[in-house]
Amino acid sequence: MLYIRILCLLFVAVLFVRTVIAYPGIKLKALYNQGMTCMKAGQFDAALHCFNQVVLKDRNYTAAYLRMGDVYLAVNNTKAAEEQYSYVLQREPRNCEALYGLGVVHFNRKNYPDAVRAFEQSADYGYKANADFHLNKGVAHLQLRDTSGAVQELLSCLELNPAEARALQSLAHISFTNGKYEDAILYWDRLLLLQPGNAFALFMLGKSHISSGRTERGEELCNKALQMQ
Q1: Domain spans of the chain?
Q2: 165-177 and 131-143 helices, crossing angle to 10°
Q3: Which fold does the domain 23-128 belong to in CATH?
Q4: 179 torsion bin: left (phi>0), alpha (psi -120 to 50), beta (else)
C-alpha cells in the first residue's frame, strides 16, 4: 500500500514538473500564433511586437525570426529583413525558408544574380516551390537575359496559378519580342480576360495581330486601346 502511495506521489511530481517546463513553450506558441494572425490581417506592427516578444524569451525560436523577416519584406524594409534571415542562416545554413527570403531581398534590390543563386539553394535544401517562387525566379532570369530559364519558370508559375497576371504579361512580352506572335496573342488574350481594362495589353494584342498579318483586326484593337487611355 505504501509502495502504491509513493508511486502516486512520484507520478504527480513528474506531471507537475513537466507542466511547469512545458508552459513557457505553450505560452510562446500562443504568442507566435497571435503574431501570425496579425501578419495575415496586415497588422504588421502588432505582428512584429508578438514575434519580438517570442525571441526575447527564446533566442532559438527560428520560426519567429523567419516571420519577422517576412513582415519586414512586406513593408519593404529589406535591411531589417536581411538581418532576420541572416541570423537564421548563421545558425542553420541550410534553412530553406531563410534562403528563399534572402533571395527575395536580393530580388527587391534588383540584385538578380544573387537572387537566383539563393532561390536555387533554397530549392536544393527542400523549399517547396509555389507560384511566387517560380514567378520571382522567372523574372530574375528575364532580367539576366536568360530567356529560356525565364520561360521555364514562368510556365511553372502558371501551372500552379493560371491567373497570375505578371507571368502572363512577361510571357506575352517574351513571345512578342522573339517574333512568336501567335503565342503572344494567346497570352495577351488570357491577360485581358483577367484585366479587361488593361489598355496596354489590348494595344499589344493589336500589335501582335498586325505582326501576324491581320492588319485590320490589329489596328481596330490598337485604336480601341488608345481610346481607353
Answers
A1: 23-128
A2: 30
A3: 1.25.40
A4: left
Q: Which H or E element spans position 134?
A: helix 131-143
Q: What is the distance of C-alpha 122 from the center of its chain?
A: 12
For residue 2, pLDDT over 70 is answered with no
> Of the candidates 88, 149, 89, which has an alpha carbon nearest to the alpha carbon of residue 113?
149
Find the distance separating the first CA and the last CA of the chain, reported in whole Å: 92
For residue 32 the three cell numbers come to 507566435
- Residue 229 CA to residue 224 CA, distance in Å, equals 9
Grid cell for residue 16: 507537475
pLDDT greater than 50 at residue 19: no
* Cell numbers for 114: 544573387
User: What is the DSSP track for 11-48?
Assistant: HHHHHHHHHHHHHHHHHHHHHHHHHHHHHHTT-HHHHH
Task: Give the sign of the dihedral formed by CA 38, CA 44, CA 45, CA 48.
Answer: positive
State the cell numbers at 213.
Answer: 498579318
> Three cell numbers at 122?
533554397
Residues 6+ positions from 204 with CB-CB distance below 8 Å: 172, 173, 176, 184, 188
Position 220 scores a pLDDT of 96
Q: Are 105 and 81 in contact (CB under 8 A)?
A: yes
